[in-house]
């Protein structure tokens, strides 16, 4: 019987050790990958969430910008990272809905099966802006000018296949206009060139630099892509109000991680993300135009699956498959 007693003690020690390990998470710095250049909405949101989690844990959260392929580079790096809970990605409509729609069957990872969807952070519209020198004051005027001058107007975005790009491709499909897309590696450089007059217009997630530029008057905001006006820019009409009935594109942000991460870590990450989103972080995100709406992993995964189906239709209509 002595050997049974020893075995019980060893087993109990292992259980306690495993529990201690789970309680100790994070035992080292956690990194959140961002698929776009610094300064855009995805980057701004990641830094705000990362700071809040770092304060909660008393442990560093490092934001790593890995711009490229409309967020796909950061998503791929996350999918292939060790499933130990220390590499997350700020997933969004471009990286986890549009990219799978464009490259169905060609990605080196499965956008649903290889990820655990911790929680959605919230929804955010895109903002369409023009340089103040452009003699266009409304989206209706912009559309009319574009129809009269096909191919003469251009717009910048955070990259081919990202949420901002697809929102304007949808506008083109719904209105029949012909404007030239200028892709960048992030919304911030696209906005910078708009501010400098190098390009005539740009589109980006409202969060981050676009909302500040619009409020300061350095750009003229023509419309938000969501179905309702954003309370941070109450005077800026929706695309539907501005002459495109039925138009509605609302981007979203969330935290994703490898699906094989231990369940205890997934549960802690979900609980802690909900905790910070219910605290002082919430009004800070709302100031950026984000409608904070955390949920369960199951709700988030179902939303992403539906988004892939939705954007597959737009991608085909815009002929962007595998571009």
CATH superfamily of the largest domain: Bordetella uptake gene, domain 1
CATH architecture of the largest domain: 3-Layer(aba) Sandwich
Given this structure, which CATH class of the largest domain is correct? Alpha Beta
Query: What percentage of the residues does DSSP assign to strands (E)?
Result: 15-25%
What is the helix content?
Answer: 40-55%
Describe the structure in your own words.
- By secondary structure, the protein is an alpha/beta fold.
- The chain folds into two domains: 29-124 and 251-318, D-Maltodextrin-Binding Protein, domain 2 (3-Layer(aba) Sandwich), CATH 3.40.190; 125-224, 3-Layer(aba) Sandwich (D-Maltodextrin-Binding Protein, domain 2).
- The chain contains eleven helices and ten strands.
- Strands 1, 2, 3, 4, 5, 6, 7, 8, 9 and 10 form a ten-stranded mixed β-sheet that branches.
- The longest helix has 23 residues, at 2-24.
- The radius of gyration is 22 Å and the shape is globular.
Short recap of the structure:
The protein has eleven helices and ten strands. It is of the alpha/beta class and 323 residues long. It has two domains: 29-124 and 251-318, Bordetella uptake gene, domain 1 (D-Maltodextrin-Binding Protein, domain 2, 3-Layer(aba) Sandwich), CATH 3.40.190; 125-224, 3-Layer(aba) Sandwich (D-Maltodextrin-Binding Protein, domain 2), CATH 3.40.190.
Show the helix and strand layout.
Layout: H1 2-24, E1 30-34, H2 41-57, E2 61-65, H3 72-79, E3 87-92, H4 93-102, E4 115-130, H5 139-148, E5 154-157, H6 163-175, E6 180-183, H7 187-195, E7 201-205, H8 209-216, E8 220-224, E9 250-258, H9 263-277, H10 281-287, E10 291-292, H11 297-318
Parallel strand pairs: 1-2, 1-3, 5-6, 5-7
Antiparallel strand pairs: 3-9, 4-7, 4-8, 4-9, 4-10
Helix pairs in contact: 2-9, 4-11, 6-11
